[in-house]
Amino acid sequence: MLHHIVIAVYQDFELLDATGPASVFASANHALAEDGEPGRYAVHLASPTGGAVPSSSGVVVETKALAKVPRGVDTILVAGAEAGAVTAATRTPELGRWLSRSASSVRRLGSVCAGSFVLAAAGLVDGKRVPHTGAPAKRSRDSIPPLRSTPMLSMSSTATSGHRRE
Predict the structure, then answer these.
(1) pLDDT at 33 over 50
(2) pLDDT at 100
(3) Is 60 exceeded by the pLDDT of residue 69?
(4) Longest CA–CA separation in the chain, Å
């Protein structure tokens, strides 16, 4: 069975936060192929409007519009970014609505680093402890939803990842 993985990105997202997870799923497909088995993961980069989306490093990626993402998505991951881009993403109604609608039908919902603030803005981590860098919150306390922090946590079907900058 093919598992559809959607990595949600937005203008000035952190490139590694999208390509790192995409590479993990590609590596799994390569390992399966070496064993003579078909790949099990299809990775889709998606954004609110689709098309070309610039990352914070200037590398531009081609995305599907969230409205065009195939049905039957197994996993959604939200890429992180620096404070300004995360704040803008939390104020993007299409992204928040799509995440809220999709959350009940996916097996796994998660984020990479500051992508957890985007999940928080969509109301998807309310009352849960989530790891995050904390950097965006320190810079924009009034504009990014607060998160209760923890070093590492997996919560049933919702998980996030983060690191602490010293």
Answers:
(1) yes
(2) 95
(3) yes
(4) 52
The pair of structure tokens assigned to 78 is 């939200």
Residue spans of the domains in the chain: they are: 3-161
The CA-CA-CA angle for residues 99, 103, 108, to 5°, reads 115
Q: What is the SS3 assignment for 89? A: helix
pLDDT tens digits for range 87-125: 999 999 999 999 999 999 999 999 998 999 999 999 998
Between β-strands 60-65 and 51-54, what pairing exists: parallel, antiparallel or unpaired? antiparallel
Alpha-carbon span 93 to 28, nearest angstrom: 34
- Per the structure block, which two tokens stand in for 46? 């998606």
Q: Which of 86, 82, 70, 88 is nearest to 6 (CA)?
A: 70
CA–CA distance, 13 with 115 (Å, rounded to integer): 9
Question: Which residue type occupies 98?
Answer: W
For residues 159 and 112, give the distance between their C-alpha atoms in angstroms, rounded to a whole number.
9
Mind listing the pLDDT tens digit for each residue in 34-59?
999 999 999 999 999 999 999 999 99
Q: Which fold has domain 3-161?
A: Rossmann fold (3.40.50)
